[in-house]
Amino acid sequence: MSGPNVAADHLRLMIERIERLEEEKKGIGDDIRDVYLEGKASGYDTKIMRQIIQLRKMQPHDRQEMEAILQTYLSALGME
Amino acid sequence: MSGPNVAADHLRLMIERIERLEEEKKGIGDDIRDVYLEGKASGYDTKIMRQIIQLRKMQPHDRQEMEAILQTYLSALGME
């Protein structure tokens, strides 16, 4: 096989690998959506569920600091 | 177990399921990035690889139509 064909095969294989991975990623995205739909069907607010996911990623100390800053800003804007 | 605890358990299980799925999704995202890095290391332009992925998703007819419209706009803007 000539050089260009080998290169084209390599490119094609990489593209196909990315496509398979994107497909898998989409499948997992669909599974995540299903869990949120299950939450919604059980009466949970999915926006708050998303917030919980974000908050659980943070260290407790960082979360407390963020909440304190949020309170400061709300207070400064007369939103309390 | 009382009602609120059952509900809290259900919520916790859903949150944990989402977290595991997000983790998997992130792993696949990393795998995709690795393929692009492999492409880059082989001398391919990763932006063009991404464009190829998008174009391969389209029907040939739709792609040709898009390319014709793109040419029209480029021409209208004197970018040819």
3D structure, described in words:
By secondary structure, the first copy, chain A, is an all-alpha fold. Chain A has one domain. Helices cover 85% and strands 0% of the residues of chain A. Chain A contains 3 helices and no strands. Chain A is elongated, with a radius of gyration of 23 Å. At the A-B interface, helix 1 and helix 2 of A face helix 1 and helix 2 of B.
Layout of secondary structure:
2 copies of one chain form a homodimer.
Chain A: H1 3-41, H2 46-57, H3 60-76
Features:
homodimer; 80 residues; mainly alpha; 3 helices; 0% strand; elongated
| Portion of residues within helices of chain A | over 70%
Low-confidence blocks of residues of chain A: none
Q: How many domains make up the 3D coordinates of chain A?
A: 1
Number of strands of chain A: 0
Biggest interface: A-B, 26 and 26 residues
* Distance between the ends of chain A: 72 Å
> In one word, what is the shape of chain A?
elongated
Q: What integer is the average pLDDT of chain A?
A: 94
Rg over CA atoms of chain A: 23 Å
Could you tell me the strand content of chain A as a percent range?
under 5%
What oligomerization state is this entry in? homodimer
Sketch the topology of chain A as an H/E string, one letter per element.
HHH
Largest sheet descriptor of chain A? none
Tally of separate helices of chain A:
3
Structural class of chain A: mainly alpha
